[in-house]
Amino acid sequence: MTSPVPASPLETPRLRSLFLLCFKIGVLSFGGGLSGWLYKEFVLSKRWIDEEDFSSSLAISQMLPGANVVNLVICMGEQLRGPVGALACVLGFLVGPFFAVVGLCQLFDALAGYPLLPVISDGVAFAAMGLLIIMCVHGVRRAMRFPPSIITIAVTAILVGIFRFPLIPVACVIAPISVALAWRRI
Amino acid sequence: MRFDTLVAIALVFIPFSLTSIGGGAAIVAGIQHETVTVHAWVNSREFLDLFAVSRAAPGPGMMLATVIGWKVAGWLGAFVATLALFVPSSMLCYSVFKLTNHHRDKKWHRAMREGLAPVGIGLIIAGVLSLFRLADGGVTAFVIAGLSGVILYFAPRFPVLGVLALGGLAAMLASTLSTWVSAL
Fold this sequence. Notes:
- The structure holds 2 protein chains of 2 kinds.
- Helices cover 76% and strands 0% of the residues of chain A.
- Chain A is built from 7 helices and no strands.
- Chain A is flat, with a radius of gyration of 20 Å.
- In chain A, helix 1 packs across helix 4 (68-110), helix 3 (51-63) crosses helix 4 and helix 6 runs antiparallel to helix 7 (167-185).
- Helix content of chain B is 80%, strand content 0%.
- By secondary structure, chain B is mainly alpha-helical.
- The longest helix of chain B has 37 residues, at 64-100.
- Classes of the chains: A mainly alpha, B mainly alpha.
- Chains A and B meet through helix 3, helix 4, helix 5, helix 6 and helix 7 of A and helix 1, helix 2, helix 3, helix 4 and helix 5 of B.
- Chain B: The chain crosses the membrane at residues 72-94, 115-132, 138-155, 162-183.
- Chain B: One of its GO terms (cellular component) is plasma membrane.
- Chain B: GO terms for molecular function: chromate transmembrane transporter activity.
- Chain B: Keywords: Cell membrane, Membrane, Transmembrane, Transmembrane helix.
């Protein structure tokens, strides 16, 4: 595949531009799938980051704990402007959603007397569970390539989801085993 | 008292920050257990409402912590919960990125990437299971969650807000219908 980005030297953005771009993506980011949007802005439109740097940043963002998009903007900021850049990106990205989510919560409380509200809220939550199910389906399909991954998924899901074992100790035990299995396979 | 609450909020969310492999969806089960069962900051009803609100608002799903913090201790609580959930994972990501980006082709780096992914998926499934248990919504829950999944699976570009709105609408219709049926 050829890269759509020409070999011209990449620009170094100003901190304010980084903050504002991340702010825009943050307030308009409904429901995830934002990696594609960041790719379009940072790689294709602004040409601040090249293709290969983007995909390795994406891999790191996805494997580490934390919201994937937040991790991704941190990697972008660090590459472009160092620690201050990372800070500008992450603050820009989170400040909008912070006020939006509390605002929505206040609106919800203001409507609390309306009898159908809990029913509607349940419906929204059920639909949101559908989103999570999609993530599971895609993840299980990726894991099919290596059957022990399926066992890892099942054991984690059963221990935490059915037997209600505390999540943190389970993750701390299973994660190293799973990484060791991947190491032996590669 | 109020200060103690803020400390408690921070202590609950900091460990989740570092175990949210694959993002906020992975820690829903854990957050529910800590905030509903252990600390009783919110009841099941409120937790489900806050989950719905955090999904309908812009931003990462991890903003669920923000609204729980807000519910428990106002703006300061929201601020502390947000910092507790985002700062540790962000610092970890920053350091790992800075230290290992040059080694991204090495075998241990690939093993880490591929080994952690299934743990994240397993945790998300656990989150879905605990939400179903919490919602106790019977057939309606399965139908709406299933339909929303089917729509987004076959039409990934369908706007998420549209799916959430349809879910709310469907639940409203189902409830109205069942009222009519029982009145007959």
